[in-house]
Amino acid sequence: MEKIEALEKVGKNLLLGEKEAAKTLINEQYPFRHMEATGRAYTDKQKM
User: Is the entire prediction scored with pTM above 0.85?
Assistant: First the structure.
C-alpha cells in the first residue's frame, strides 16, 4: 500500500468515527520513524 492510500483510508476511518481502526492502520502502514538530530558544522564564512 502506498503512503497516500494509507492516509486516505485513515481519513475515511476518522470521518466515520473509527478512531481505533485509523490508529491501527496508521501505525502499520505509515509508521513514524524518529530521527536523531545531527549538528551542523558551519564554516567561519557562514557564521558571519
Answer: no
What is the spatial distance between Cα 48 and Cα 39, in angstroms, rounded to a whole number?
A: 18
**Please, what are the averages of pLDDT over each run of 10 residues along the chain (48 residues)?**
91 97 93 84 87
Is 30 in contact with 10 (CB distance < 8 Å)?
Answer: yes
15-26: burial string, b at 16+ Cβ within 10 Å, e else: eeeeeeebeebb
- Distance CA(22)–CA(18), nearest Å, equals 6
d(CA 13, CA 6): 11
φ, ψ for residue 37, nearest 5 deg: -75, 135
Chain center to CA of 39: 22
